[in-house]
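Title: Comparing notes on inverse folding

I've been comparing how different people in this forum approach sequence design from structure. To keep things fair, I'm posting one structure and asking everyone to reply with a full sequence. Here's the target:
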């Protein structure tokens, strides 16, 4: 058992019969009344994000979790097929349980969060930086490289992103998956 003093980003715990993961939290000590913790927690079964307030000192049931590397094979409807490269075990992961799924391409390695006691996959995380090819964007105009202006582009995975004016179709770019932003052009 843990208390609200043990809260940290990424902590997994049972709450109302479901596994939850803390996305963000803030300890609040008002001038009048008891202290509390304002949190954003994600349901690891449904993927739903919930804003919840815990009074300070409340006990929570922490879940022991493990991260394992899996390779994304292919998508079939709303399910994604992932394979462990060590023992070739395959699992199905619902689309809404994969963070930043719009940047996931076939063959990419993801980190799958497992419930250590039950051996159940809970969620998957795309790497923080990925390299994708631009599938469609308007052509760049010569001389438009001095300003910090962006234009819309579509990547090979179907994700829409804002890129600088000098990026053209077929260029490979590095993307920050957490923010969904362009980082640099890859040669």
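Reply #1:
Here's my take.
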């Amino acid at each position: 058992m843990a208390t609200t003093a043990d809260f940290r980003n990424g902590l997994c715990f049972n709450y109302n019969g479901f596994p939850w993961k803390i996305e963000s939290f803030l300890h609040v000590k008002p001038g009048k009344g008891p202290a509390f913790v304002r949190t954003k927690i994600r349901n690891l079964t449904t993927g739903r994000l919930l804003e919840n307030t815990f009074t300070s000192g409340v006990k929570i049931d922490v879940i022991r979790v493990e991260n394992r590397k899996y390779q994304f094979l292919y998508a079939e409807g709303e399910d994604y097929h992932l394979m462990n490269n060590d023992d070739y075990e395959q699992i199905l992961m619902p689309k809404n349980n994969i963070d930043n799924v719009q940047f996931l391409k076939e063959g990419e390695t993801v980190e799958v969060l497992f419930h250590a006691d039950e051996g159940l996959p809970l969620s998957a995380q795309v790497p923080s930086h990925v390299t994708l090819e631009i599938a469609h964007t308007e052509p760049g105009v010569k001389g438009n490289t001095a300003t910090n202006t962006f234009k819309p582009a579509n990547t090979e995975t179907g994700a829409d992103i804002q890129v600088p004016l000098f990026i053209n179709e077929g260029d490979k770019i590095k993307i920050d998956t957490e923010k969904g932003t362009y980082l640099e052009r890859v040669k």
